[in-house]
Amino acid sequence: MNAPTTAEPATAEPDIRLETDADIGERMILNMGPSHPSTHGVLRIVLELDGERVVSAVPDIGYLHRGMEKLCETLGYHRFIPYTDRLDYLSPLHNNCALTHAAEKVYEIIEELIKLAEFEERVERIADELGTTSRKVNALENMVLPDMRYIIKFIEDKLDEESMEELVRMKLIGGAKKS
Fold this sequence. Notes:
By secondary structure, this protein is α+β, with helices and mostly antiparallel strands. The protein contains four helices and three strands, in the order βββαααα.
């Protein structure tokens, strides 16, 4: 019976499949683990069995998928911190710190985005006011001022100089009485 060959050395992602040259026959490939108490989900072993005899064992170290991502999505980060203790009993504080630092960074980014949105809102308000002011100035220049010039010209044409002085005097006296 030929001994099976294991996967090639790890590159980017290790290939944990067993490759055998012999006929498999009664052999069975079995995933052992990840088991909870001893390795706590960080070790999985792919076994090749021939009856009750272990022919080959390929370790998959670092295997840690236990559905924690979905738990974190539903719980929120502050309620997920106790679960990060359970990801690895040898370094629970490391996992807690990683989660809280990441959440704090996201919170800081959100605060900055809110400040940018408020700033953009103010800039848009200023642009709106400038546009309104521009329309008002254009209306004054194109509609009101020409009409006023026309009215003044009409009054000057109709009144002689003496009557004009009388009109201005009456205007000043009338304006003084109103205030």
